[in-house]
TrEMBL record:
Main location, first listed in the record: cytoplasm
Chain intervals for the UniProt region annotation (G1): 23-30
Lineage of source species: Bacteria, Pseudomonadati, Pseudomonadota, Betaproteobacteria, Burkholderiales
Ranges where the record places region G5: 161-163
Region (G3): 70-73
Region G2, annotated ranges: 49-53
UniProt-annotated binding residues for GTP: 23-30, 70-74, 131-134
Localization, UniProt: Cytoplasm; Cell membrane
InterPro entries in the record: G_ERA_dom, GTP-bd, GTPase_Era-like, KH_dom-like_a/b, KH_dom_type_2, KH_sf_prok-type, P-loop_NTPase, Small_GTP-bd
Source organism of the structure: Herbaspirillum frisingense
Coiled-coil residues: none
Name used for this protein in its record: GTPase Era
Family note: Belongs to the TRAFAC class TrmE-Era-EngA-EngB-Septin-like GTPase superfamily. Era GTPase family.
GO CC annotation terms, alphabetical: cytosol; plasma membrane
Length: 304
């Protein structure tokens, strides 16, 4: 989905840099990035730990290229190899960023938010983003809440937004632009992500597993694209959903295969919308016990 380095010569005022989006699970980080970029490059669901990779979303507006980096929600409840890998992704992204968006829910600041706040490096400018501000019915409490949270870190700005309602996003981008370094663009102006179509296909299937299996399936499932082929405008995708146990496999397949069929249909439709052409999709469900606690295996499945 990325076409390589841009050919144009930017002006002296051109700004470009990496913007890390961080926060505890389920504060709307992926939704925020998708809306800012204008395309669904990071999957979403109501289930924590939906985002497991460092996902890049690119938006080019005039003389500014915003390279947003969505991160997994920082994990504190589990300590297997998968969660350690996710947390390492968060900390590595923070140190490499030019700007950080620390996202919390407007009106809510708990221990999990505090733990992420303590990770913020002092030498990287950070904006406090109060997401879901439209849900805060008593607006008189929002500013005192914002001041209380802002007092705990040297934030460059505080911006209340609603990613779903697209509220205050222009104001947020303007604050980000002020903090970006003067750099030439890193990507073509039409690029929306640096991730491959094969990677995006695996993420789309995983999103549908989370959406249609819901709370029944433990977090220890992942998706492996075993083959990705393109013939003209047609993509052929062969995917495997990996689970820990036979009981989990039955959950994904559903009665008479109905749930797996729904996962396949909705994943195919999303791929066709994103890739702009027809998709042939086959999905199998396989049992792979212990995959989430095997560091070598995690690397084989694309975890950094």
């Amino acid at each position: 989905m990325a076409g390589g380095a841009p050919a144009q010569e930017p002006g002296d005022d051109y700004r470009c840099g990496y913007i890390a989006i961080v926060g505890r699970p389920n504060v709307g980080k992926s939704t925020l990035m998708n809306v800012l970029v204008g395309a669904k490059v990071s999957i979403t669901s109501r289930k924590a730990q939906t985002t497991r990779h460092r996902i890049t979303g690119i938006q080019t507006i005039g003389d500014t290229q915003y390279v947003y980096v969505d991160t997994p929600g920082f994990q504190t409840r589990h300590s297997n190899a998968l969660n350690k890998t996710l947390n390492r992704t968060v900390t590595n992204t923070l140190t490499a960023a030019d700007v950080i968006l620390f996202v919390i829910e407007a009106g809510t600041f708990g221990p999990a938010d505090k733990q992420v706040l303590e990770l913020l490096p002092a030498n990287v400018p950070c904006i406090l983003v109060l997401n879901k501000a439209d849900r805060n019915k008593d607006k008189t409490t929002l500013m005192p809440f914002a001041r209380e949270v802002a007092s705990q870190h040297n934030f460059a700005a505080v911006v209340p937004v609603s990613a779903k309602q697209r509220f205050q996003l222009d104001a947020l981008q303007e604050e980000v632009r002020k903090l970006l370094p003067h750099n030439p663009p890193m990507f073509d102006e039409d690029d929306i992500t640096d991730r491959s179509e094969k990677f995006l296909a695996s993420e789309i299937v995983r999103e549908k597993v989370f959406r249609f299996v819901g709370e029944e399936l433990p977090y220890t499932s992942t998706v492996l694209i075993e083959k990705f082929e393109q013939e003209g405008n047609l993509r052929r995708v062969f995917a495997a959903i990996l689970v820990e146990r036979d009981t989990h496999k039955a959950m994904v397949i559903g009665q008479k295969g109905a749930r797996l069929k729904e996962i396949s249909t909705q994943a195919r439709l999303d791929m066709e919308r994103l890739f702009g052409g027809p998709v042939y999709l086959e999905i199998w469900v396989k049992v792979k016990s212990g995959w989430a606690d095997n560091e070598a295996g995690l690397r084989a499945y694309g975890y950094e």
